[in-house]
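Bumping my old thread because nobody answered last time. Still need a sequence for this structure:
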């Protein structure tokens, strides 16, 4: 049993991200399915929404290796995975890195790096 109840921390993070962010829709490719009747392959995609605070990386964080010029930092109320997609102002961004804050098995929020 965890010694600390992280539910209040999760509630605080969700409230702040909701207050200072916006709701966005993400999409995730679930895989491909082959239809032997038609001989075609189709991909399956799911969508989900989360509140997101959209931030630029500081200049001293951009190393042109792991973090490229133009990459953005997202603080997300939910769980995002590498290769998930998000659209902002007509541009599609791909999640290239994620760092969930998950102490004691409670997902507080996820910090993600996105690139277009």
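Sorry it took so long. Here it is:
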């Amino acid at each position: 049993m965890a010694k600390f109840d992280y539910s209040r921390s999760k509630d605080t993070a969700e409230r702040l991200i909701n207050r200072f962010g916006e709701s966005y829709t993400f999409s995730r490719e679930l895989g491909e399915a082959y239809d032997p009747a038609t001989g075609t392959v189709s991909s399956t995609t799911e969508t989900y929404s989360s509140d997101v605070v959209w931030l630029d990386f500081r200049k001293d964080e951009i190393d042109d290796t792991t973090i490229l010029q133009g990459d953005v930092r997202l603080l997300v109320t939910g769980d995002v995975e590498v290769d998930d997609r998000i659209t902002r102002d007509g541009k599609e961004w791909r999640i290239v890195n994620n760092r969930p804050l998950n102490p004691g098995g409670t997902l507080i929020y996820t910090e993600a790096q996105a690139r277009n």
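The longest strand covers residues 40-56. Let me know if any region looks off to you.
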